[in-house]
Each structure stands twice: as C-alpha cells, then as structure tokens.
Amino acid sequence: MANAPHKFNAKVFKMPQSYGILPGLLLTSGLAILAESFHKLPSLSLLSSLILAIILGILVKNTIGVSKIYQPGITFSLKRILRLSIILLGLRLSLPQVIEVGPNGLIIVFFTLVSTFIFTCWLGQKLGVNKRLTKLIAAGTSICGASAIVATNGVVESKDEEVAYAVAIVTIFGTLSMLLYPLFPIIFQVTSQEFGIWCGVSIHETAQVIAAAFQGGEMSGELATIAKLSRVIFLVPIVLTLGLFSNKGTQNNQVNKLPIPWFVLGFIALMLLNSFNIFPENVKGSVITFNHFLLAISMAGMGLKTSIFDIKINGIKPFYLGAASWLFISIFSLVLIKIFY
User: Fold this and answer.
1) Which of 5, 20, 285, 333 is the most exposed place for a label (fewest CB within 10 A)?
2) Which segments in the chain show pLDDT lower than 70?
3) Alpha helices (H) in the chain, listed in sequence order
4) Distance separating alpha carbons of residues 140 and 162, to the nearest angstrom
C-alpha cells in the first residue's frame, strides 16, 4: 500500500511526456496557419508567410512564453520537418529551367553569388561578426533568403537567435529591393530582360522577386523567376562546402561520419527526377503549396526558440554587414548584366 501513491505520482509526472511531439507540433502548425491567413490581408501581402510565421513565434516566445511540454514538437519542426521541406524544394527546379536562363545568365548568377558570399564573409571578419552569423547572412543574401539560411544552419549549427537575426536582415533588405528596384529601369536604361535577370539574381526572397520583376512586364517576371530558381541549385555546393569546413579538424581528425547534409542530396535527387517531367503538374503544384506550409511550420518553430534579448547581444554590426552585402549584390549584379547580358 505504501508504494501505491509513489507509482501513481510517477505516472502523473510522466503524463506530459506521453504527448511527445504533438503539443509543440500543434502550436507550430497553428502559428503557420495564422501566418498564411495574415499573408492574405492586403496590408501584409508583401510579407512572406514564412516571415510572418517567425514573427508570430517570436511574439509568443517573448510575451506569454513557451512551456516545456511544447519543446519536443518545436524541435521536431525545426529539424525533421525543415529537412523534409528542403528536399521538397527540388520540385521547384529542373535542369531545363536552369538552361533557359542562358549561358550568360548562368555566368552572371554564378559570379554574383560566389562574389557576394566571399565578400560578406570577408567583411564579417573585418567587422568582428561571429563566423556562424556571418555565414548565415552570406547564404541568405547570395542564394535564396530564409530558405538558404535555415539550410545553411543545418551544417553551421548556429544559435536560434542568430538564425532569426539573419532572417530579419535579409527580409528587411529584400523588401527594400522589392520597393526600390522598379524605380531604376529608366534611370539606368535597363531593358525588361535585363531588369528581370537583375531582380532574379539579386533580390533575396522568391515572393519579393516576383513582386518587383512583374512590374517590368511578363517577360521580365518570367526571366526573374527562372533566374531566382537557378540560384537555388547553388545551395547544394555551398552547403556541402560549409559542411566539409565545419567538420574539418574535429574529433581529432577522425571522421566518424561523412560531413554531408543528406537532405541536400535529397534535394538534388528530386530536382533531377523533376527534370524528366514524371510528376503530374496538379500533384506537383499541391506538393509545392503544402511544402510552403511545412516551411512556415519550421519558421514558427524558429521563432518560438528565439529570445529578443539574445538577439540584442549580437549588436548592430550584423545589420551593417547585411546592408553592405545587399548593396554589393545589387550593384555588382547590375554591372555584370550591363557587361555580359
């Protein structure tokens, strides 16, 4: 009889753990749904639902707080769901699309991306910004915004606050590009084709690219979308390279496991399969839409793990780095376009 209360209490104590990932997953999914709803509002339509999801997560974390019972599901959203969504990004790209940009367009994409990444890493070192955050800002600016940041974090393993800071930076300057770029074609005598390539090569988020480029016409919008998607393919070598350097010299130079982010290889495989047009368009469209929701779930999880106080610790220098990186990719890409395109 004496042992009965002890056993009962143990069961009561373990009860919250029995829910596993469900509470946290419901929370991140709920915030993702809310973000999708807010995105449909005219006043917020220019903000990606991914950005809105991370903002909502940060608000919840830093106001009412997040109980421990939600942590397993939040971690699941950040790890498992995020990696699955990166793999599914392969459905948005095919080799014929990349080829459609043309050799000159691909050269511009390659040199702009590599130069921006190297410049940002160099300047980050000069400014004294920590290496992890510098690499996140470099990836987000040069490749494809928030998606590149979270994929890069898979090998860089930054703090959640650093990831949130990097996402905030590329969101701010990507939005500025979206608003300012349509003012420049007349000033710089840029054709609609050149304007489309410029938007696709240098603006951070896909939604921002589309919003800006289609103001230059249908051809401009289509070229911008293809150029933007072709940047995504460079996510693979960048992440693989960072994975190699991040693991170099660790564990007494004994390689216990290959420093390869396998979800990136899944992305490559799906992209190659998509190049053969084996997926029905309606099915592919549905999966792409659902995958965007999965990314929003991951972003909500990111926000739920982000402390504003911890972001402040990083100071203002990363913001300066993001601004300089934004100016570099905007100017450098336009110069290349005027020379080669």
Assistant:
1) 5
2) 1-18, 46, 207, 245-261, 264, 310
3) 3-18, 22-39, 49-63, 71-76, 82-88, 95-100, 103-127, 131-139, 146-156, 160-180, 184-188, 192-202, 206-213, 218-232, 235-247, 262-274, 281-304, 308-313, 317-340
4) 12
Reference 139, options 232, 71, 266; nearest CA is 232
**Tokens standing for residue 116:** 């921006």
pLDDT digits (tens, 9 = 90+) for 120-151: 999 999 999 999 899 999 999 998 787 788 77
With beta carbons less than 8 A apart as the criterion, state whether 143 and 93 touch: no
Q: Report the Cα 302 to chain-centroid distance in Å.
A: 12
Integer Cα distance of 203 and 112 in angstroms = 12
Q: Residue 190: its pLDDT value, please?
A: 85
Report the Cα 152 to chain-centroid distance in Å.
8
Q: How far apart are CA 165 and CA 306, in angstroms?
A: 9
Q: For residues 301 and 58, give the distance between their C-alpha atoms in angstroms, rounded to a whole number.
A: 9
DSSP secondary structure string for all residues of 60-81: HHHHT---GGGHHHHHHIIIII
pLDDT value of residue 5: 47
Amino acid at 97: Q
What does the pLDDT read at residue 11? 40
Q: Specify the DSSP class assigned to residue 141.
A: I
Q: What's the CA gap between 202 and 224, in Å, rounded?
A: 10
Of 51, 246, 240, give the one whose Cα is nearest residue 132. Answer: 246
Residue 154, both tokens: 């898979």
> 116-155 burial by CB neighbour count: b if 16+ within 10 A, else e?
bbebbbebbeeeebbebbbbbbbbbbbbbbbbbbbbbbbb
Q: How far apart are CA 165 and CA 148, in angstroms?
A: 14
What pLDDT, on a 0 to 100 scale, did the predictor assign at position 245? 66
> Helix axis angle, 22-39 relative to 281-304, nearest 10°?
110
- Give the residue from 205, 262, 284, 260 showing the smallest Cα distance to 86: 262
Contact between 204 and 170 under an 8 Å Cβ cutoff? The reply is: yes
pTM of the model: 0.70
Q: What is the pLDDT of residue 14?
A: 40
